[in-house]
């Protein structure tokens, strides 16, 4: 199962800061059921999630969405 999420920010710098903050979390040891990857195109952060089942993909989606919102609020986005 695959799912893609796109997050748009006001500037490429914001997307870069968020991507840098998320990088240590991607595919870390605690991520056993889902794997995520990301890239930036201009001011859009693309997050791709691969998981074996729907529950894992939704849990991963919720986690990353929450982290992205949190980081964006911290940097004043």
Structure report:
The protein is of the alpha+beta class. Helix content is 42%, strand content 30%. The protein has helices at residues 12-22, 54-74; strands at 2-8, 34-41, 44-51. The protein has a three-stranded antiparallel beta sheet with strand order 1-3-2. Helix 1 (12-22) crosses helix 2. The longest helix has 21 residues, at 54-74. The protein is elongated.
Question: What topology does this entry show?
Answer:
Blueprint: E1 2-8, H1 12-22, E2 34-41, E3 44-51, H2 54-74
Antiparallel strand pairs: 1-3, 2-3
Helix pairs in contact: 1-2
Q: What proportion of the residues form beta strands (DSSP E)?
A: 25-35%
Helix content: 40-55%
Kindly provide the radius of gyration, computed on alpha-carbon positions and rounded to a whole number of angstroms: 12 Å
Low-confidence stretches: none
Order of helices and strands: EHEEH
- Order of neighbouring strands in the sheet with most strands: 1-3-2
The assigned structural class equals: alpha+beta
